[in-house]
Amino acid sequence: MLRYPEDPRDDPTVVVSIMSRESPNPLARKFPERPFFFETVRVVKPLADAQGYKAEALLEVRPLATRVLEQEIFWAEKNVSALENIGKYVRGLTKQQVEDRITESLPVAVAVKDSQDKPRAVVFGDAEFASDAPMAGRFRGLPVANTYFNLMVSTIDYLTDRPGVGARPKETKIYIWDTKVQTAPLAYLPAWLMSLGIFGLGMGVWVVRRR
After folding, report:
1. Position 127 in a domain
2. Cα distance between the two ends of the chain
3. Which candidate in 93, 101, 111, 172 could, as Cys together with 75 as Cys, close a disulfide (CB 3.0–4.6 Å)?
4. 62 CB neighbour count, 10 Å cutoff
């Protein structure tokens, strides 16, 4: 999927998706209007005639404006040669070509249930959101807190029929140094031990030579 950027410096491969307003899925209800940034995401459309299964759009890319980027024109690009130089390809489109690509929304994630209404799969059009940086709260250098971690864990909970769907409470995994702790011993003690070791080594060498 590509986006026509208002600023030529913007990356046209970055889009923002939001949970579908029409979806009754628990994931959609737990993350309403929460923006999820994706890079080089692919369109994932549900099949209406899948026998024994029901698929519904979960995440959608639709026109919106955020503090980071504006998203008015986007499309599912089928021209593979555009990957050679995406920025040049997008900037080279004519006004008519851009207007022909205008669409209301495109699904980028689909939830699948069986005939007994049990969750069977959640298909995302991107895998990079589950990589180290987004899981740690960073997307292309931007802080995103636990957004992608909550989405990933909530998806697993949903598929395993667990009740913990939604944002997780913040877990502190980084030790914060207490400002009241005296740091002087940590600085002087190693130096004192090194001096003592050098002195002891010198005394040992002196004793050996005396013999």
Report:
1. yes
2. 83
3. 101
4. 17
